[in-house]
Design brief:
alpha/beta, DNA-binding, single chain, Rossmann fold, five-stranded parallel beta sheet, three-stranded antiparallel beta sheet, 413 residues
DNA sequence: AATCCACAGGAAGCCCGGGAAC
DNA sequence: GTTCCCGGGCTTCCTGTGGATT
């Protein structure tokens, strides 16, 4: 290549964006349309913090993309702001329990939020949990104000490590001498409270809020407001926003997904060098989002999970249909022997299969063949091609997929 | 109605690598 | 050093179960 300006060619032309960031899920808009009621309700509970009282604990439910996180953070920001202007000590701590996913980690995370103000820290491992808890109490009391702790995706944590953390946090106020604390739990699974100890349930569920899904009109409205911030004039072809809202409404009214679709569609329009986002770009985006998701998941998949996945693909191919757990395990064992990886137990492999199912890479559902047992029916779903393409980027894996003449062994099945 | 298959999936505990405190 | 913690991956052992077959 000559001295051509390689970046310039991408920088200069016809960017259709005015501000791309406004379409990202991290962006916090100044207003949240169709969530006024929820904001008000949440604020009416949390205002107690500004009066020096203890706000009630709250459970928030709603499907993904219904604005739970957004509304909570929004109100939290306002709370801090107002607290500052009134000179009231309030603290608002947000934790995503899918990322911070054990009792110990949540406690250290919260503690470190306070502690960093006075230059210490709790190590990420090493201390007994109750010591972290005591330290947390000490820190909150030293802070002395009202603390609101948000546990987002709380169902993930409870499913993984039980409700010990929630039990401890629910009696937090009786351990505090001067400060006050309240908990906001956010979940998209309505049934998860069934897993909780009744005491925890009643203590944390003092207030309950349910976020309804957006309908297509509301999503369209949200999109229009964001699009006005994100794009230059007349960039969106007519019908595009309606199409996206309709697609998102099909998926239980997921606003985040709608915004993603719009952003990715616009990006592919931009790449084409076009000046308008057309409906075709939306369909392109639909596929692109899915395939990006899959390759991202596969990239970070542990080797054993990959082996199980390949076994499912290969087994399906050999059998010409869906597999049972037992069949998949047989293929998996062969696969390990061939490639020299250690063979895990069937118990572990069923767990890996379930994980792959939850990641949406394969479909595994429990079926009963009556007298002939009860097992899981395993299918490498509609994204089969995408999965294989993604896996094939790794040479060592490619070898396994080809299975170079080793079918003989597998034919024995 | 009872049986019984082929697993599902819970519980406990091991081992390892991280670290703290003494 | 030793001894204590926590978490992740894993095994061992186990009880539970939907529904075709008996």
């Amino acid at each position: 290549m000559s001295t051509k300006d390689i970046f310039g060619q991408f920088l200069k032309p016809n960017s259709i964006f005015k501000n791309r960031e406004t379409l990202r899920s991290t962006y916090m808009p100044e207003e949240l349309p169709h969530r006024e009621k929820e904001i008000e309700q949440l604020a009416s509970v949390l205002v107690a913090a500004l009066r020096g009282e203890t706000p009630s604990n709250i459970f928030i439910y709603g499907k993904t993309g219904t604005g739970k996180t957004c509304v909570t953070k929004f109100v939290g920001n306002q709370l801090i702001k107002t607290g500052k202007s009134l000179n009231k000590p309030v603290e608002f701590i947000y934790i995503n329990c899918q990322v911070v996913d054990t009792q110990y980690r949540v406690l250290t995370h919260i503690t470190n939020q306070f502690i960093k103000k006075w230059d210490e820290r709790v190590p990420f491992t090493g201390w007994p949990t109750d010591e972290v808890y005591s330290k947390l109490m000490e820190c909150i009391d030293r802070f002395g104000g009202a603390v609101t702790i948000v546990l987002d995706e709380i169902d993930k944590l409870v499913m993984k490590s039980g409700d010990d953390l929630l039990y401890n946090l629910s009696r937090i106020n009786s351990d505090l001498k001067v400060a006050k604390a309240s908990i906001i739990g956010i979940s998209n699974d309505l049934r998860f409270t069934e897993l909780l100890d009744p005491r925890v349930k009643s203590s944390l569920g003092e207030e309950e809020m349910i976020f309804p899904s957006y309908n297509a009109d509301e999503i369209k409205d949200i999109l229009e407001k964001r699009a006005a911030l994100a794009f230059k004039e007349d960039v969106i072809a007519p019908g595009v926003l309606s199409l996206i809202s309709a697609l998102a409404a099909q998926e239980h009214g997921d606003a985040r997904r709608a915004l993603d679709l719009l952003r990715v569609a616009a990006e592919s329009a931009e790449r084409d060098g076009g000046t308008r986002v057309e409906e075709s770009h939306v369909y392109e985006a639909l596929e692109r989002i899915e395939s990006d998701r899959i390759s991202e998941v596969l990239r970070t998949l542990p080797t054993q999970s990959k082996l199980v996945l390949i076994s499912a693909i290969k087994g399906e191919e050999l059998k010409g249909g869906s597999l049972t757990t037992g069949e998949a395990y047989e293929v998996y064992k062969q696969m390990c022997n061939i490639s020299g990886y250690p063979v895990l137990t069937e118990r572990r492999v069923t767990e890996l299969i379930s994980e792959l199912d939850m990641l949406g890479i394969i479909e595994a559902r429990v079926v009963s063949f009556g007298k002939y047992g009860r097992t899981k029916e395993i299918k490498v779903g509609s994204q089969r091609g995408e999965v294989i393409a993604s896996l094939s980027r790794e040479p060592s894996i490619l070898e396994l997929l080809d299975m170079k003449g080793k079918q003989k062994k597998l034919d024995a099945l």
